[in-house]
Amino acid sequence: xxxxxxxxxxxxxxxxxxxxxxxxxxxxxxxxxxxxxxxxxxxxxxxxxxxxxxxxxxxxxxxxxxxxxxxxxxxxxxxxxxxxxxxxxxxxxxxxxxxxxxxxxxxxxxxxxxxxxxxxxxxxxxxxxxxxxxxxxxxxxxxxxxxxxxxxxxxxxxxxxxxxxxxxxxxxxxxxxxxxxxxxxxxxxxxxxxxxxxxxxxxxxxxxxxxxxxxxxxxxxxxxxxxxxxxxxxxxxxxxxxxxxxxxxxxxxxxxxxxxxxxxxxxxxxxxxxxxxxxxxxxxxxxxxxxxxxxxxxxxxxxxxxxxxxxxxxxxxxxxxxxxxxxxxxxxxxxxxxxxxxxxxxxxxxxxxxxxxxxxxxxxxxxxxxxxxxxxxxxxxxxxxxxxxxxxxxxxxxxxxxxxxxxxxxxxxxxxxxxxxxxxxxxxxxxxxxxxxxxxxxxxxxxxxxxxxxxxxxxxxxxxxxxxxxxxxxxxxxxxxxxxxxxxxxxxxxxxxxxxxxxxxxxxxxxxxxxxxxxxxxxxxxxxxxxxxxxxxxxxxxxxxxxxxxxxxxxxxxxxxxxxxxxxxxx
Amino acid sequence: xxxxxxxxxxxxxxxxxxxxxxxxxxxxxxxxxxxxxxxxxxxxxxxxxxxxxxxxxxxxxxxxxxxxxxxxxxxxxxxxxxxxxxxxxxxxxxxxxxxxxxxxxxxxxxxxxxxxxxxxxxxxxxxxxxxxxxxxxxxxxxxxxxxxxxxxxxxxxxxxxxxxxxxxxxxxxxxxxxxxxxxxxxxxxxxxxxxxxxxxxxxxxxxxxxxxxxxxxxxxxxxxxxxxxxxxxxxxxxxxxxxxxxxxxxxxxxxxxxxxxxxxxxxxxxxxxxxxxxxxxxxxxxxxxxxxxxxxxxxxxxxxxxxxxxxxxxxxxxxxxxxxxxxxxxxxxxxxxxxxxxxxxxxxxxxxxxxxxxxxxxxxxxxxxxxxxxxxxxxxxxxxxxxxxxxxxxxxxxxxxxxxxxxxxxxxxxxxxxxxxxxxxxxxxxxxxxxxxxxxxxxxxxxxxxxxxxxxxxxxxxxxxxxxxxxxxxxxxxxxxxxxxxxxxxxxxxxxxxxxxxxxxxxxxxxxxxxxxxxxxxxxxxxxxxxxxxxxxxxxxxxxxxxxxxxxxxxxxxxxxxxxxxxxxxxxxxxxxxxxxxxxxxxxxxxxxxxxxxxxxxxxxxxxxxxxxxxxxxxxxxxxxxxxxxxxxxxxxxxxxxxxxxxxxxxxxxxxxxxxxxxxxxxx
Lengths: 571, 668
Fold this sequence. Notes:
Largest interface: A-B, 80 and 67 residues
Number of strands of chain B: 36
Oligomer: heterodimer
Helix content of chain A: 25-40%
Distance between the termini of chain A: 72 Å
Structural class of chain A: alpha+beta
Radius of gyration of chain A: 25 Å
Low-confidence stretches of chain A: none
Low-confidence stretches of chain B: none
Mean pLDDT of chain A: 94
Number of helices of chain B: 17
Strand order of the largest sheet of chain A: 2-1-5-4-3-6-7
Distance between the termini of chain B: 44 Å
Mean pLDDT of chain B: 92
Strand content of chain A: 15-25%
Number of helices of chain A: 13
Shape of chain B: globular
């Protein structure tokens, strides 16, 4: 192999990243559905001839480091000779890709001078893939209810589309037109990657590009080893619970043992719950991906991902568990388990790398559906909203108040003005939930309340999580307050609940969602009284909580009572 | 008589003077006066011209922007509807970084304690649900007086459709507080829905209001004492100008006017040389700004985010990356990186001799001979070639490559980065860079332009006159511009043409009033209507131009066409809807044509020096730009020097000076 100079290496490295960005720009630009071009529920990558990542651009954290698995798994089954010039493949089977059926992976081999030089790949969330309920269900109990399910299949052969297959796809999605649009957007992104990669190959030649790649992977791996070596060797445990599996089961346990040995980190998920009947399962590929997100949060988060990244990480999970589910497990809400896994990893390693860690965040997307018929125009409407909550405190800073959860991508809450125009729903109250952040030297962020007055007969579905293990504190910091949803109507008894599928509601129903706060970091009594006072003035913390939990006495004129504080904190 | 523009930079204030009677153009460079930037403008003018001979002054103010960047604006009290005022602090809850467990949200300009509530409520259709509570406002007035607050922003829910409560609230406050308190009403600053973004824009307006007003008044006074009695015009982010008196009420609209001059200059150049498609690049010490002229027009967007703070203001679309003469070359785990970190002005590149000990892009240019050691950077700074040599040697030793390889490598890396950035913008816009010409300006633009063109397969590079002051020149090419918006949330189906016409007429009447206030004659006024439209169910929208007379069929066609252009596909049978109608109102300003540069004195003799191109030494001619004749042609390698910039033409490229004095560079 040719010896490569550092200049060409850097130009090629930047080009790989830029190719991925261009692919992403093309996908976002040409996708048909807002889930992709607004929610950024997608990822693109340029891979080398063995499926390793050269460049990647991700809109959704959970898609980190997962596309290569699809290519490599295909090669494991069929061999590398399987890929021919002019092929384009797709796959969505949860037990292959790991994720839910809505996520469609499309990839194509790139040939240069008759040689397999690499792959373009992308994954995007398709709005509807023919599940029993539009868009996807909250209460599926097996994968057959969740939509069509494809093994690796050729979409194109010899540069010709396989019309029968495309027609099948179109006919089996509720929004066939946009489904084909999104498929074409992914293909266009792949073509962009192919064209630009070939440009680089024309300029530098395959040998030189491969030498550069080896060099880049080596650099990434070395940087990672340096970071991992700084973590004290040992075995670190943690666990947490999902409230239930979505079908009213007992809490679902996740358990992990993280072993650090010199330059290697192993995550063992043994002891986690067996796969559930409800849809909180996932295939192993997506579990690996979530572990990589967790790892990336702590290890060189700013360095772009490539084939040298994650070489130091190994993941194992028991067959038939929620993390390595088997047919026909339901997988629609797979990310609830994975969000918890990510929090648990940070917790497990926190004793070893306190300065990089943080207490847990409020935990899940906290999704609320409101639907019905809009009396203003008699059109059906459906609002689907995740809700923000508090994040955990960490060294030198409080956790963020009202921030979207860790597995979400380009989310923004819908402005009240837009919401009230689009849906027959009024929002009269929306704000921070005082005292919801776990107390600590650095407190957890506050969760939110959002009050919907529904001006139509309709239905509500809810997916709220993490009341069994609300956001935990670390190093003496306290847990955050968990979530709640309250429903009030004129003629029925007030209800508090967290999950619901298609609950009928009458016009005038008031629904208030409360999301949890983040966990606190270190002991609340160590918190600087000035910061406690600030929180009281800014109304994140009540005077009572300041006194009872922080040991800070604040007088009515909003001044710190030094004597009282001293007494409280020293007895 | 003169028309003048002033572009205030960190170090220098550039002034461009057009002598309209003699049809000559001249530039003045003075040191900036950061404490009161007006001083540099005033003295630059007063020391060189008679103020009473000036017809027209335009300038871009950076006072507001600096106050914002340094967080030195005024304390703002934000008044919002009761029950929902936390929307401002929640800031829509999004994360700007995906992999950061220790993420903190960008700090808001107003802490939560200074967001106060008033009981009132307007419904989505403008109907009043709850009357304005005047007692709440009296209490707020007391707070303002007691705490000596000088800036207020008011944002009530749905005020974009019914501003009654905001207007009344201002009246009540005005009666009870000091006269000099700035009050920004959200519907006046940004008449669009989305309460957080609108509040954020109004807050910014108030945050920089007091300091910008003070500055504009001070400059106005200085000028009128000097017997300048014509209007003073201020550059806006939208590429047009307004009178200083108008700017005082809405400083947020001038916030990002700094780099806009260059793009407007590009637009004027495009018209002059009859090339509709240009990629404009401005490379300075720390940043690289890119903008596009497509079909003769710059692209203008209607909102932006600055340091994660959203602003609903129209602005010329300019993309920036951290790449410039000061970009530092450094090592990470054995890999060579260039930028985005910059050596800045202090210590600056090693060749500044101010203690910089890492090689920068400028050092590489000096080492290779592309920048002459006797050329004075920005016209004033002597360069120390030995210092550059030393830092390049240090780094090349570590990498075990030659100094030349490193120096050329640094430039290759930064050029490839800039080219990649340009490519990504063109991909997003769905255009092919090969169909564009590259216009290069700024201190370092013309030194790198040919390599950018090479990477992007662009056939032609244009280096305009005085590339170092091109942005200031651009400001002289502007017109007065006001942007008006009205919410028009309507499905396309079932809409009548009358309804659009009625709204348009209202907007136009409003716009005529505004232009009259800018002293524009009716015959110089022109209007352009656009609509924000989307497919029903979408969140994003496209901005569609609407021709008069209104024709629904054509609007529909235009929408699908615009959508196709932006996203690469459209759904001609898909139902669509309107969100906003926007009116661009332009008041034409008379401009002067065919300006010739005034011959400077000290023309440099033709000389030559050794320059390295592709590892080879070339004895290269160095020419002063002033001695090149129109249509004179040169074959590279050759270097053209002028006071504010150096243009480098490598072997295999040639150069010709066009009828307007532009340097046109082509591949042989």
